[in-house]
Each structure stands twice: as structure tokens, then as C-alpha cells.
């Protein structure tokens, strides 16, 4: 990009959707990545295109797809949205009945094309493509050991670590993949593709979501079930912790590389990340979020005139809060969907007003009213303060903030882009101090017990309802300390 263009552009980075980390004016948590796989359908590329489009909310920086016709790989990756990376002619060139695809939001890995997935490799038994959602906590340690042994890495993505572990093994592919997965620690959902096989794996704690669907005789795999609905497939089941599936000419083979550990699906999937039309652990996300709002009303009722949710992820919870309290639900905040998720204004003064680029308060709805504002989380607190002030500027007489998650105090090691602990406002301030910081009249967070009860998926007898809530309570389901080399965020 030329210096002249950079001087005149209204965003930072080399392209519009490039991640900005702490410089983003919207300090919400960033989605991890999304994967989509097809086995046994003649239009695998087209299915993957629509599936990835349904998963676009999980990653907007890059998209990629690898398809095989049984003889050779056809693949393409690019920076930007799915609809920008692929066109009709390009999809027509991606022929084959097996496919894996990926949408990516980079966090711990650099934002550049070489890290876009699927990663494609040549190794002794032929071609191998790898796509993953999640983060390998001990990747830096393994990477250093591999480099000392002569391995040369082409990317900064920790996904490449698994490819090297497989390539160095003297065992057949499936056994080599099992050994590789046993060596890594973290939260991950992997899709591995060869010219005649698709291998699917989920980490032993089931931290990252992955589901299986069926379309005719074809098997489909996706980070969220909404992708199956998009292509007209039926949902079969979730991939279980430690499970490894192999699909080849002989059909589907169910296996595992590790015994399941404490089940710990990321709680933020329910609270924020996943689309409301997706199901996880047998629980619909919209229904779960409504229950969060209802439970929030029971725990922290406040007399008010209207309830509004911060779009889009908090709308369901706001409806639940309104239904439980009898207070009218209104669209007090409207989202502008066309600003781009990482739009950056060129000056700090305009950055402070930048939230208006994305959200608008409906003056006729909130003016002269006591407003309950429902949101899913508070990270640094800057966005919450801007939204509260937006409502006040529109004439709200009171703004009471209700957060449908416990206070977010700790970084994530398993695939969510979180700031350092010291940047998380709840790690150093009390609820009363946060309330003052965001300029609210009152502030309450959902209790951990209320969250578990509201989610209601899986076996309620599971520890913490089968959820990972380490970002709230510092109780990580895996080892996280690897001599200071561990990483958090999303390494895919």
C-alpha cells in the first residue's frame, strides 16, 4: 500500500478488516476462528463457501479453503471476508468432494496471508492440509524444541506445530496425528485433510465447539450448527472431548486420541461468540441467552421504564430480562452493520466519538426514561462507558447496566483474544468502582451459579455445568504454565 493511500485512509493496517488489538475503539472480546469440513459431496467447495459465510462472525481477517478430488489439492486463501476472497470462477476451479475451510481472526499469530488457513504441506506420504480453531498453550515450547531439532517454520501460527509433529513421526498418518494431539495442550478443534482422508479431532476438555452434520450421504463438520442450517444439512451430534474421527473410502470411523477430561466448553460461546441460531451441548444459544436475562432479572431487579440490549449478542438476554420483569423491551440502541468491525478514526478526539459510527441511541425511545442496558461483558470498560454516555446524551434520565456474565478478570489461553490481566477492568476494580468508571447509575453482573443454570446444556451434574469459566474464576481446566513460554489468545 502506498504512503499516499495510507495518509488518506480511515483505518490502520494494510487492509480494512486487519485486527487492531487494544487500539480498537470497540473493546469487546474477539472471536477465535471457525472451521468447516465436507466429506463425500461433489460440490464440496460450494458447501464450504456457504458454511464459512455462516461462520463469518468467528473471523473476518482471512478465509481459505482446500479441496481434493482424490488426486491433488486445489486451494485458495486470502485476506478479508469470505465473499471478498472467493468468487464464482475461483470456486469452480476448486473441484473435489473433500474439503476443509477456515475463517480467521488473528490474535497471537501475525495478521498476514502466510498465516491464513488451511495451511498446506508436502510430507512423505503426500499432501496435508490443516485447519483449526483454538490455541495451543504449549506451542512456543514445542516449536523451540522442533527448531532445535532442525525444523523450519514458514508461519507464526501454532497450527504449524501440529503439522511438524505429524511429519516427523514414523507412524502412519492417523497414528501420527494421535501422537501429535497427545503432545499439545490447550483448546482446539482440528480438521486434517489428505487426498483420501478427513481427520476430525477435539481437545480432551472440549473447550472449542465442533459439531457433525449430514447432507445426503455426505458428512459435514462445523464450529457452529448454524452453518448446517445454511446448507440444508441435519445436525447429528457434537464431537466429544478427546474424540478423533477418520473418514475415508470405507466410511466413518469413530476413535479417540485421549480419554475425555473435565468437560469445559468455553462459557463465552454461550454468552457472546456463537450465533443465536446455533446449538451447543443440546442447548440453543438464543434460548440460553434469554434465560441469562431472566436470571439476571431475578438476581438484580431495578425499577425502570425500558429495557434495551447492546446489539447484537445481548438482544436475546434483554428480551429475557424484559419478560421476567414486565418492563417494556425497546430497541434503544441500533447497530450500523456497515462500518467494519475494526474501523479506526484518524484522531483520538474522533476515536472517543467513534462508537457513534457503530451504535446509535434511539432518542424517542430513551429520552426522559430510566433505561436498563443489557450487555454480555465488560472488558476494559471503555466501550461500556461510551454506550452509557450515548444513552445519556439521547436523554435517558438513568442508565442501569446489567451484564449477563460474571466479571471478566482473567486472560484466556484457549482461543479468545483477551488483553493482559492488568488491562481487564474487573481484575483490579470492584463492581462499585466499575460502575463509577462507566458512568452508570447501577451495575450488576450475573452470578456464576446463575450462568450455569441458565446455559442448561449437557449434564448439569458436570463440574460447573461442563463450562470453562476460567476467565471469571481463574480455574483453568489444563496446565497453563510452561516455563513462561505459554501463550494466550488464538494461535491458529
TrEMBL record:
Its EC number is 2.4.2.14. Binds 1 [4Fe-4S] cluster per subunit. Gene3D superfamilies: 3.40.50.2020, Glutamine Phosphoribosylpyrophosphate, subunit 1, domain 1. It catalyses: 5-phospho-beta-D-ribosylamine + L-glutamate + diphosphate = 5-phospho-alpha-D-ribose 1-diphosphate + L-glutamine + H2O. CDD domains: GPATase_N, PRTases_typeI. Pathway: Purine metabolism; IMP biosynthesis via de novo pathway; N(1)-(5-phospho-D-ribosyl)glycinamide from 5-phospho-alpha-D-ribose 1-diphosphate: step 1/2. InterPro entries: GATase_2_dom, Ntn_hydrolases_N, PRTase-like, PRTase_dom, PurF, PurF_N. Mg(2+) binds at residues 313, 375-376. In the C-terminal section; belongs to the purine/pyrimidine phosphoribosyltransferase family. This is Amidophosphoribosyltransferase. The keyword Membrane does not apply. Its cofactor is [4Fe-4S] cluster; Mg(2+). The gene is purF. Residues 33-250 form the Glutamine amidotransferase type-2 domain. The active site is at residue 33.
Amino acid at each position: 500500500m502506498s504512503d499516499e493511500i495510507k495518509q488518506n485512509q480511515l483505518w490502520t493496517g494494510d487492509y480494512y478488516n486487519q485486527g487492531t488489538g487494544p487500539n480498537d475503539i470497540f473493546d469487546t472480546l474477539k472471536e477465535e476462528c471457525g472451521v468447516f469440513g465436507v466429506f463425500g459431496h461433489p460440490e464440496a467447495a460450494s458447501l464450504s463457501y456457504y458454511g464459512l459465510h455462516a461462520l463469518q462472525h468467528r473471523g473476518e481477517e482471512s478465509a481459505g479453503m482446500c479441496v481434493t478430488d482424490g488426486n491433488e489439492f486445489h486451494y485458495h486463501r486470502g485476506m478479508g471476508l469470505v465473499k471478498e476472497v472467493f468468487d464464482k470462477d475461483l470456486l469452480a476451479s476448486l473441484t473435489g468432494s473433500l474439503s476443509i475451510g477456515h475463517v480467521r481472526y488473528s490474535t497471537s499469530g501475525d495478521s498476514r496471508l502466510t498465516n491464513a488457513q488451511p495451511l498446506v504441506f508436502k510430507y512423505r506420504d503426500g499432501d496435508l492440509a490443516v485447519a483449526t480453531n483454538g490455541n495451543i498453550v504449549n506451542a512456543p515450547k514445542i516449536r523451540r524444541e522442533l527448531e532445535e531439532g532442525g525444523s523450519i517454520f514458514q508461519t507464526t501460527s501454532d497450527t504449524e506445530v501440529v503439522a511438524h509433529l505429524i511429519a516427523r513421526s514414523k507412524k502412519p498418518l492417523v497414528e501420527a496425528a494421535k501422537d501429535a494431539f497427545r503432545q499439545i495442550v490447550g483448546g482446539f478443534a482440528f480438521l486434517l485433510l489428505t487426498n483420501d482422508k478427513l481427520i476430525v479431532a477435539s481437545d480432551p476438555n472440549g473447550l472449542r465447539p465442533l459439531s457433525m452434520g449430514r447432507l445426503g450421504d455426505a458428512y459435514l463438520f462445523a464450529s457452529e450448527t448454524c452453518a448446517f442450517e445454511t446448507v440444508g444439512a441435519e445436525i447429528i451430534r457434537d464431537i466429544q472431548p478427546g474424540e478423533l474421527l477418520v473418514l475415508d473410502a470405507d466410511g466413518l470411523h469413530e476413535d479417540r486420541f485421549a480419554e475425555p477430561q473435565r468437560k469445559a466448553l468455553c462459557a463465552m460461546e454461550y454468552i457472546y461468540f456463537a450465533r443465536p441460531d446455533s446449538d451447543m451441548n443440546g442447548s440453543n444459544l438464543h434460548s440460553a441467552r434469554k434465560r441469562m436475562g431472566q436470571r439476571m432479572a431475578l438476581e438484580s431487579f431495578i425499577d425502570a421504564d425500558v429495557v434495551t440490549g447492546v446489539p447484537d449478542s445481548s438482544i436475546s438476554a434483554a428480551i429475557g430480562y424484559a419478560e421476567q420483569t414486565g418492563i417494556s423491551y425497546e430497541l434503544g440502541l441500533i447497530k450500523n452493520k456497515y462500518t467494519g468491525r475494526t474501523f479506526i478514526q484518524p484522531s483520538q478526539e474522533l476515536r472517543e466519538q467513534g462508537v457513534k459510527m457503530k451504535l446509535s441511541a434511539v432518542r424517542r425511545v430513551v429520552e426522559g426514561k430510566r433505561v436498563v442496558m443489557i450487555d454480555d461483558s465488560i472488558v476494559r470498560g471503555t466501550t461500556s462507558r461510551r454506550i452509557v454516555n450515548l444513552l445519556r446524551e439521547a436523554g435517558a434520565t438513568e442508565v442501569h447496566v446489567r451484564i449477563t456474565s460474571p466479571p471478566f478478570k482473567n486472560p484466556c489461553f484457549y482461543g479468545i483474544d483477551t488483553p493482559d490481566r492488568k488491562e481487564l477492568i474487573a481484575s483490579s476494580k470492584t463492581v462499585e468502582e466499575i460502575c463509577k468508571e462507566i458512568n452508570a447509575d447501577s451495575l450488576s453482573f450475573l452470578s456464576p451459579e446463575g450462568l450455569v443454570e441458565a446455559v442448561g446444556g449437557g449434564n448439569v451434574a458436570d463440574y460447573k455445568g461442563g463450562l470453562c469459566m476460567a476467565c471469571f474464576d481463574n480455574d483453568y481446566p489444563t496446565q497453563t504454565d510452561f516455563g513462561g513460554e505459554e501463550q494466550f489468545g488464538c494461535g491458529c
